[in-house]
Design a protein that fits this description.
The protein contains 25 helices and 26 strands. It is an alpha/beta fold. Strands 3-2-1-4-5-10-11 form a seven-stranded mixed sheet, with helices on both faces. A seven-stranded mixed sheet has the order 14-13-12-15-16-23-24, sandwiched between helices. A four-stranded parallel sheet has the order 7-8-6-9, with helices on both faces. Belongs to the phosphofructokinase type A (PFKA) family. ATP-dependent PFK group I subfamily. Eukaryotic two domain clade "E" sub-subfamily.
């Protein structure tokens, strides 16, 4: 699909006025969205207004609707909540209220609204848009505005962004704030696990989410909870007995703690509420376990937004302005949202109707339908949780007589252990014998391989690093020894979790198939590296955790200069030759520049950046941030850039430098990496089972085709298996990066938000799509 890139330079906002408001419950990342709307709006020469206190401010008018400048949104990116305030507004629900709001907007010439809120706020916005011309007519009749104004401001355009920690809006995979809320929940669960372990306790955790079980479900997946209660999937009749049996079995297996997660809207199959207190009383009465309840409450809405939410909100904010510029009286009000890794526009009312359908299905007891309506992502989470949390009795498990080995290769990445756990448990469920290889290919050659059971991987999801141990060594020099080990242990399939070395390793093993029959078995790779430099996948396990570390550190570094004189920080990130961490870190931390290998730069560009910063520092802006990928240029080192900025900025700002180093590889995995690692690895294991069945002939497994050595990667909206042989042409082996990388399209976004003139290819955005109702079949194929 080769189309000419379409740039937004020809979309001008001159003469347009955009109002931005946040409404309903607050969510982390709303400020990032507000900042992006304001800066993109000003960039395309539109006027941008803050509407303070949501719809209430729109109705009250006056100082609540204020034109803003570039600097107005400086330093709000890392702040949780919403700086322009949000309120529930009764008067906007009346026609009088909306009449007053319309009058206030017309007074300032605002006919474009960007609304950041939940389904209630967006439905209100849509009604306002439908009534707009009628409201203006009424204002003219009352003599409040003239006929000229009625003609001039005849149409109101509306674009919504969903800001809600509940992730309860159909049509988008993630709403702004969800990822940050998961961060808060997981921080608490990790902390509770240590105390529960000490005392052999059971903890019942209640999480938010109103009528949606997303937060409960994903946090249960991310911490390996023993049981989860969500409104969309009520437990079957007699669940009390089943749960108690499960908890006592876990205790008998030497598990010292039990975690039960309850969504605040949890119900049983008769639509009766299941409360955390009720669950606690049940455990105490039946089992006598020491049980505590923790209700997380508003902690989940608080704190700083995660890197994912900042990037999501920034992308959506820019997309919202583009949608407003392109809107015509004929286009319906739309929401900008995320599908997989792609920004999409969807008709607002279709999403709202589908969201209401879910509630209706739940009220009527059609729970299977409710789960399906929630979307592919929700359904996959639920299926994966069911697969991994309950071990069937041995008698009920199939026996395939296949042996499958799992190993980690390359540098450690947070989330590897979650991937190993999922692989082992899915493998056992499918009837295979699972083997763990210690210390990568090197350990494999030395025979460091042992059978691993369901219980062995308990509690692994939240552990950072690699418990199996990992090495960068490639298999080429150990081929004979590895083949021996495969024969001795009768290994019928391999699952490799790792980075670029894992990819090279699989290429070497498949090339050695001519010589060694032992390698003629299905092999699959799951990408796990902080650098995110594996061809064939938009994301790799571990990159999100590293990105959060970089973002948190940048926040702290920026704060260290508050109250001092003007200061610029030069920060070096990891990533080999891949600029992903530097580029996305810059977007998430609000940096002024990011130097990366993929986009060559020279002394003139460095000079321009310094001048740009100097100009900025002459305004009210006090701090600058510059990120540099470790290998972006062998001569323009971090020291060189630091010295250049120090010299050129004399008298305006001073400089400090920081090399982040190995802290980027450490730490507990983020919710995204736990979840992504778990789901992608479970899917890879199911592929192995399928391939084993296909290639089993005359009592042995024999697979020697290209499509039996695959990499499972996330591509735009889907998870796809790609033969490693076919990925060769997409790889720059010298610099260990893919030849084409999706995130380079976000480079201009960072530059626009840092006040540079640039061109931004918008061919990908644009067309209004319809909310897809997926078939159950689709849930098994591509979606994450």
């Amino acid at each position: 699909m080769d189309h000419q890139p379409k740039f937004f330079e020809n979309l001008s906002g001159t003469g347009k006025a955009i109002g931005v408001l946040t409404s309903g419950g607050d969510a982390q990342g709303m400020n990032a969205a507000v900042r992006a709307v304001v800066r993109m709006g000003i960039y395309v020469k539109a006027k941008v207004y803050f509407v303070y206190e949501g719809y209430q401010g729109m109705v009250d008018g006056g100082d609540n609707i204020v034109e803003v400048s570039w600097e107005s949104v400086s330093s709000i990116l890392q702040v949780g909540g919403t700086v322009i305030g949000s309120a529930r507004c009764k008067s906007f629900r009346t026609r009088e209220g909306r009449l007053q709001a319309a009058y206030n907007l017309v007074q300032r010439g605002i006919t474009n609204l960007c609304v950041i809120g939940g389904d209630g706020s967006l439905t209100g916005a849509n009604l306002f848009r439908e009534e707009w011309s009628g409201l203006l007519e009424e204002l003219a009749q009352k003599g409040k505005i003239d006929e000229e104004a009625v003609k001039k401001y005849a149409y109101l355009n509306i674009v919504g962004m969903v800001g809600s920690i509940d992730n309860d809006f159909c049509g988008t995979d993630m709403t702004i704030g969800t990822d940050s809320a998961l961060h808060r929940i997981i921080e608490v669960v990790d902390a509770i696990m240590t105390t529960a372990q000490s005392h052999q306790r059971t903890f019942v955790l209640e999480v938010m989410g109103r009528h949606c079980g997303y937060l409960a479900l994903v946090s249960a997946l991310a911490c390996g909870a023993d049981w989860v209660f969500i409104p969309e999937y009520p437990p079957e009749e007699g669940w009390e007995d089943t749960m108690c049996v499960k908890l006592s079995e876990n205790r008998a297996r030497k598990k010292r703690l039990n975690i039960i997660i309850v969504a605040e809207g949890a119900i049983d199959c008769h639509n009766k509420p299941i409360t955390s207190e009720k669950v606690k009383d049940l455990v105490v009465q039946r089992l006598g376990f020491d049980t505590r309840v923790t209700i997380l409450g508003h902690v989940q809405r608080g704190g700083t937004p995660s890197a994912f939410d900042r990037i999501l909100a920034s992308r959506m904010g820019v997309e919202a302005v583009l949608a407003l510029l392109e809107a015509t009286p004929a286009t319906p009000a739309c929401v900008v949202s995320l599908s997989g890794n792609q920004a999409v526009r969807l008709p607002l009312m279709e999403c709202v109707q589908m969201t209401q359908e879910v509630q209706k299905a739940m009220d009527e007891g059609r729970f299977v339908e409710a789960v399906r309506l929630r979307g592919r992502s929700f359904e996959n989470n639920l299926n994966t949780y069911k697969l991994l949390s309950h071990k069937k009795p041995d008698a009920e498990l199939p026996k395939t007589n296949f042996n499958v080995a799992v190993l980690n290769v390359g540098a450690p990445a947070a989330g590897m252990n979650a991937a190993v756990r999922a692989a082992v448990r899915v493998g056992i469920t499918e009837g295979h014998k699972m083997f763990a290889v210690i210390d990568g290919f090197e350990g494999f050659a030395r025979g460091k391989i042992k059978e691993i059971s369901w219980g062995d991987v308990g509690g692994w999801t939240g552990q950072g690093g690699s418990i199996l141990g990992t090495k960068r060594t490639l298999p080429a020099k150990y081929l004979e020894k590895i083949a021996d080990q495969m024969r001795t242990n009768n290994i019928n399939a391999l699952m490799v979790i790792g980075g670029f070395e894992a990819y090279l390793g699989l290429l070497e093993l498949s090339a050695a198939r001519e010589k060694y029959d032992e390698f003629c078995v299905p092999m699959v790779m799951v990408p796990a590296t902080v650098s995110n430099n594996v061809p064939g996948s938009d994301f790799s396990i571990g990159a999100d955790t590293a990105l959060n570390t970089i973002t948190d550190t940048c926040d702290r570094i920026k704060q260290s200069a508050s109250g001092t004189k003007r200061r610029v920080f030069i920060i070096e990130t990891m990533g080999g030759y891949c600029g992903y961490l530097a580029n996305m870190g810059a977007l998430a931390a609000g940096a002024d520049a990011a130097y990366i290998f993929e986009e060559q730069f020279d002394i003139r560009e460095l000079q321009a950046n310094v001048e740009h910063l100097t100009e900025k520092m002459k305004t009210s802006i006090q701090r600058g941030l510059v990120l540099r990928n470790e290998n972006c240029n062998e001569n323009y080192t971090t020291d060189f850039i630091y010295q250049l900025y120090s010299e050129e900025g004399k008298g305006v700002f001073d400089c400090r430098k920081n090399v982040l180093g190995h802290m980027q590889q450490g730490g507990a995995p983020s919710p995204f990496d736990r979840n992504f690692g778990t789901k992608i690895s479970a899917k890879a294991m199911q592929w192995i089972s399928k391939k084993l069945k296909e290639t089993y002939r005359k009592g042995k497994v024999f697979a020697n085709t290209d499509d039996s050595v695959c990499l499972l990667g996330m591509r735009r909206r889907n998870l796809v298996f790609q033969p490693v042989a076919e990925l060769k042409t997409e790889t720059d082996f010298v610099h260990r990066i893919p030849k084409e990388q999706w995130w380079l399209k976000l480079r201009p976004l960072m530059k626009i938000l840092a006040k540079y003139k640039t061109s931004y290819d918008v061919s990908d955005s644009g067309q209004l799509e319809h909310v897809a109702m997926h078939s159950p079949k689709e849930a098994e194929t591509g979606a994450i």
